[in-house]
């Protein structure tokens, strides 16, 4: 079994730039509690804003052939992708053995490997192997490359309920460690990360330390990620190829979802359709991403999909002083597509704070106005990044921002059934996690007035691969 207590070193002098529920009465009680605790726009006055914390550097203590940076992701129906790195120069097998009993592997799969160069840095051998078919809600034990430790993973259920953890702008600081400890205290099925993973910012060894840092968590629950501005890592003339490390290390099921780019893709899990969008890939009308999104929404099985969730990096709605207007171009280009498809929730990162755009009467947001058929927008870029919190908010002139607070934390979305889900945001407060915001959400697919409109049956044109 993998040891969840990874060794690490703290660097203090390094500058890194760059419900089924009981009854209607119970719901009313929860709603009353929610109004009492979170109707205020600003945070509690007696809570001191936490400052940034030190960077954690996680060393590799194994041999060069020892698998490290192990993480898993969903890879189409009943399959998962296992990814890891080895640093030995000779050929190491891209091979995974797995089974439902510890130490007994009755199945195996072979994949491939790659590596990349970035200026004077050369990565280790990066392996990707798809395993399956796997049974839902089942614990599997697996080993990478016929050596090293045994890892454990649990597959998501095939039916609701289902629980997502949402944490953006992670980095690898002491606050990140706190966030992940809080996340791991309660069981969940899938982690969604709306961009800004390692904060390497071209310092490639930080991708390695990040992979080792998150391995205890990302190796036993699928992490589904999208890209942020810190993943771009492109510079004029000297290094123009963007997302090189991200695309090589964190391969997502883009091909399985009909996408031509690892920067945007979708997946289905237990009746929830999740769309991962690329804030830093072309999203204009007629672009490859626009065409793919239109086709993806058009082919979604409305009979089997009760919930639709979108994840991106730069928020479309934001009352924080930081990053004002940076998501506006993408909102103008894509929001109508999501609105017609009746996307229920949109999660974003980028702004290092928490903010939720929906009121207690379940009025959503569309085109900068309250709209009962719009999406619930949540900014959750407070996972633990090294840059600190975005403390200043401006006046909410549109009256659609219900709750906002500049603190580190994570969110949980428990999709209870086809009609109701519970969203909660948990603030990091030193050694314990405090739930500061919660709300029950009703799916748009269950609303007679907000059923999804018929999307055009768009055929994807042949486009260049944006990997």
UniProtKB/TrEMBL annotation:
It catalyses: a phosphate monoester + H2O = an alcohol + phosphate. InterPro entries: Calcineurin-like_PHP (IPR004843), Metallo-depent_PP-like (IPR029052), MPP_PAP (IPR041792), PAPs-like (IPR039331), PAPs_C (IPR025733), PAPs_N (IPR015914), Purple_acid_Pase-like_N (IPR008963). Residues 164-354 form the Calcineurin-like phosphoesterase domain. Its EC number is 3.1.3.2. Residues 67-148 form the Purple acid phosphatase N-terminal domain. GO terms for molecular function: acid phosphatase activity; metal ion binding. Signal peptide: none annotated. It comes from the Eukaryota. The chain crosses the membrane at residues 20-44. It holds the Pfam family Pur_ac_phosph_N. CDD domains: MPP_PAPs. Residues 375-431 form the Purple acid phosphatase C-terminal domain. Keywords: Glycoprotein, Hydrolase, Membrane, Signal, Transmembrane, Transmembrane helix. Belongs to the metallophosphoesterase superfamily. Purple acid phosphatase family. This is Purple acid phosphatase. It comes from Stephania yunnanensis. The lineage of its organism: Eukaryota, Viridiplantae, Streptophyta, Embryophyta, Tracheophyta.
